């Protein structure tokens, strides 16, 4: 993969950045996403943040090789620490676990004053991100789910809620995604068939214990019921 031939997953993420975006890509790795966006849109600018030395140097080389150093700043640091307050309008965090992305947002929330849109692509545990968005008044405005190279990915887009109305998502919406559970795409159904099988297995294993955790079993049974219900054709 290079900046001109981006993965479908990252192309989907990029599609939610507006023209003239002023964004940060946190955990940018080789800076493929910022390079792709800035090559497509001459009005876009970006900050590529990377914690580890190897990917940081790779990102610098990628930006320099595309003659984009004037529009993409490559910075080394942990999470949103690479940003100054109110420095960007959009933030992208892709390709990490949902819990890690949530922690990055939580630890760097003081940098989000001006940020109107956050685009995340968690590899697992999207639920924790949906909860975080509600807590900090970001409304989910779009969700996507795709399968690529044998993996299923979700993309969640959230925007600062300026309506004055309090945000609320049900436990089911938090688990499945408010948009995804309505659309029920084939990839969505495939994911939750697999997730149900995992929960069934865990439940059976817990039940084998000498002192099974009944609270855990009850929680699993509830989620299994929700999955069965959401997979039913309307």
TrEMBL record:
Molecular function, one GO term: tRNA (adenine(22)-N1)-methyltransferase activity
GO biological process: methylation
Pfam families, per the entry: TrmK (PF04816)
Keyword field: Methyltransferase, Transferase
Entry keyword Zinc: no
Top-level taxonomic group: Bacteria
Record-linked InterPro entries: SAM-dependent_MTases_sf (IPR029063), TrmK (IPR006901)
Keyword Transferase: yes
PANTHER family: TRNA (ADENINE(22)-N(1))-METHYLTRANSFERASE
Name of the molecule in the record: tRNA (Adenine22-N1)-methyltransferase
Source species: Thalassobacillus cyri
Lineage: Bacteria, Bacillati, Bacillota, Bacilli, Bacillales
